[in-house]
Amino acid sequence: MKLALITLFPDVIESFKDYGVTGRAVAEKKIDLQCFNPRDYATDKHRTVDDRPYGGGPGMVMRCEPLTAAVQMAKSWTEENARVVYLSPQGKRLVQVRTQELAEIAEEQNLILIAGRYEGIDQRAIDNLVDEEISIGDYVLSGGELPALVLIDAILRHVPGVLGHAESAGQDSFSESTEGGLDWPHYTRPEVFEGQAVPDVLLSGDHKKIEKWRSQQAKTKTRKMRPDLILNRQN
Ligand code: 9D3
Q: Is the pTM here over 0.85, yes or no?
């Protein structure tokens, strides 16, 4: 699976390739992640990638030409009909089912992600290049790089062989084992830490009882922290 990322800050992305399950996926060539910097494709004397907005107002806007050239290079590296996703505050909010669907799309036709900076990108670049716009949630960030990494991380977890045998995407919170609810509490050694003991049931060896306790803990936590997950399962 080829993932191309259009970004003015490729260095921000690099460390992601070195650590954890995602780093292993890169090392084992389950995915090929490459950055394309619009700056490298700016043709004017000063290599400008942004300019002031028509109509006035604060901030700068990413220009069409360098973006278009970068996406074209990304397409020749991936494939001509690669899915193009623009990470944007105006996008549809990302949920777990969509990460699964995008993983399937990415397996079929590869993926080009555009991370914006400044106030965003010229609308004509969106109209010409972008298949869909995705936001990762209702809070303000400084650009699309972290959202792109969030999306890549979530997609990779669905790629066969990326997760070990113990984990599996189906076991994740927001997935099957807790029926779309939150996880149960976890404990490991020591049995007593600063006077706090591990719940007896977990040491009982009674697997039926343990399973029942965990599911009840998960339900209580979900009702308290995320009642919305019970009311409208949109994941
Ligand atoms: C303070 C600037 N805002 C004026 C109304 C608009 C704005 C422009 C650019 C807000 C954020 C950004 C940069 N954010 C992203 O590129 C972004 C993002 C986000 O901020 N939150 C959640 N998901 C995403 S995906 C891309």
A: yes
